[in-house]
Amino acid sequence: MFLKNMAETKKFYLTKKGLEEFKKEYEALKGLRIAKTKGEVPKIWESEDLNPEYLSFQEDLNFLETRIAELENIFKSACLIRHPSKKELNIVNLGATVRVKVGEEKDEFTIVGTLEAKPSLGKISNESPVGRALLGHKIGEEVVVSSPIKAIYKIKKIKYN
Amino acid sequence: MKELVNFFHEIGKLKSKPRRGWVINDIKNPESIAEHTFRAAIMAWVLSNRRKNFNIEKVLKIALIHDICEIYAGDTTPYDSILPRNKKKRAELMKTWPRFSNYEKKKLAKEKYKREKRALEKLISKLPLNLKKEIKKLWLDYEMGLTAEGRFFRQMDRLEDFLQSMEYWKKYKKPPQGPWWLWAREHFDDPVLLEVIREMDNKFHKHKKPRI
Q: Which residue in A80, A99, A112, B121 has a CA-CA distance of 20 to 30 Å to A13?
């Protein structure tokens, strides 16, 4: 088996919402870093919008620094997913929410970049076999994903937010 | 020291807790959560060895602690909310991959997260502060994919499951492999792990192809 060197220096495709969330988190963490040196708790940490788990960073400066560096690395290689033109609205591209029928079952996926992928929440990566196979297809088309078993994904609806 | 011994005693219980995914498939002598953790850690170490700027120590620690919350939270599967009591109906359900609306997906994920976080906090509550903080942050990294290592191990964990499912399928003709493949092709995107999956397919499905 051939294993390549896999540095995470590739492009990170992000939705507008995803990029905004990362930026918000970054600003909050930077605020926290400054406040920690002064022994204060910044106001942003009282905001309900902020993921309560970020509060864990409050306890640990190393964790805070690691996450800040991670976010900076993401921004350096970030590539914003653009909204498609009117002509392209019926084609599955990055950022599309696709309603499909797989056999007798219905499902809905949003095709995102690897950083935003959360398959258990319906966000699948453009680099996953199904995400890759759906890209470029239109409503009504059937996409076959095989090896080793064959499954047909029939595209019922494509939506862009 | 007393609190550390209590902690070691508690996590030792993972050695005798069977994984629920195999129990609901009626697998004879199913592996324990600790057995899953053991191989997932080795696979994570070996498969992350060739990556640049990758903290293998962190990956290994994430591997070791990722399921310890299950001592109190229990193991969960995507089938739990729709699982029939009737054995025949259950076996039929195992031939399908459960699909939910996006609302249900979010609800189930949120419930699972809350349950496991509470369990983890209970388990580590009496540990020395530094250790408690480290375990919590490693677990959050795994759960939320905060760093490259956390994101990698999230998929790595599932790869070990997938390998185990193929081994059971070869031995017992269950669990049905169709749903596993449907799931895998939507979940994995790491190129190295996808390459491993292709090799697993060659090894286990060379003579008999799985069906949906």
A: A99
Q: Tens digit of pLDDT for each residue in B7-20?
A: 999 999 999 999 99
Instruction: Mutate one of B139, B183, B189, B208 to test the A interface: name it (highest A CB count within 10 A).
Output: B189
Suggest the residue from B185, B206, B208 to mutate for an interface test with chain A (most A CBs closer than 10 A).
B185
Question: Tokens for A117?
Answer: 């992928």
- Residues in chain A with CB shorter than 8 Å from the CB of B133 are 59-60, 63
Contact B154, B66 (CB under 8 A): no
Is B46 near chain A, with CB under 8 Å? Answer: no
Nearest chain B residue to A6, by CA: B51
- Sequence-distant (≥ 6) Cβ neighbours of residue A131 within 8 angstroms: A109, A111, A124, A125, B186, B189
Q: Which of residues 133-152 of A touch B (CB under 8 A)?
A: 145, 147-151
Report the alpha-carbon distance of residue A103 to residue A105 in Å, rounded: 6
Write a three-state SS string for B61-105. Answer: HHHHHCCCCHHHHCCCCCCHHHCCCCHHHHHHHCCCCCCCCHHHH
- Residue A119's alpha-carbon distances to A130, B109, B189, in angstroms, are 11, 11, 11
Q: Cβ separation of A4 and B199 shorter than 8 Å?
A: no
- The pTM (predicted TM-score) of the whole model is 0.87
Is there a contact between B159 and B43 (Cβ–Cβ < 8 Å)? yes
Q: Which of A45-54, B87-96, B158-167, B173-182 has the highest mean pLDDT?
A: B158-167
**Identity of the residue in B181, B191, B199 whose CB atom sits nearest the CB atom of A148:** B181
Q: Is A49 on the interface with B (CB under 8 A)?
A: no
Tokens in use for B12?
């030792």
Say which DSSP state A92 is in. -
